[in-house]
Amino acid sequence: MNKIKKIALIATISAIPLTSTAVGFSVAELNATTCFSCHGPDGQPTGSSIVPLSVFPASYVSMALKDIKNGKRKVSIMDRHIKGYTIDELDAIANYIASLNKKK
Question: pTM of the prediction?
C-alpha cells in the first residue's frame, strides 16, 4: 500500500469517533446501546425480569458495573459485556443511563 493510501486509511479510522458526536450521539450513548438489547429501550425492559437501568442514580449504576467488572458481583452475562470497557467508559455509560430517567 502506498503512503497516501495509508495516510487516508489512518485519517478515516481516526475520524470515526468524531463522526458519532458530529451526528448528535455521544460515545457513552453509543456504548450504552448494547445495554438496551437486554435492559430494554432507554433502560426500561418491557415485560421482563431483567432490571430496569434508568431508575437508578449514576453512582449506583457505576458502582454495580465496576463490581461486575472486578468480579465482586456475579451476574449471568454482564461480565462478558463489561470486560471491554475502561472504568472511565463505565462511568460515562452510568451517567448517560441515569440521564434517561431525568428526560421522562
Answer: 0.69
pLDDT (tens digit per residue) in 82-92:
888 999 999 99
Question: Strand, helix or coil at 86?
Answer: coil
Question: What would you measure as the largest C-alpha separation in the chain, in angstroms?
Answer: 55
pLDDT digits (tens, 9 = 90+) for 4-29: 655 555 555 555 554 444 567 788 88
In contact, 67 and 78? CB cutoff 8 Å: no
Task: Tell me how far apart the alpha carbons of residues 86 and 22 are, in angstroms, rounded to a whole number.
Answer: 23
The Cα 17–Cα 28 span in angstroms is 11
First to last CA, the chain: 51
> For residue 95, what is its C-alpha cell?
451517567
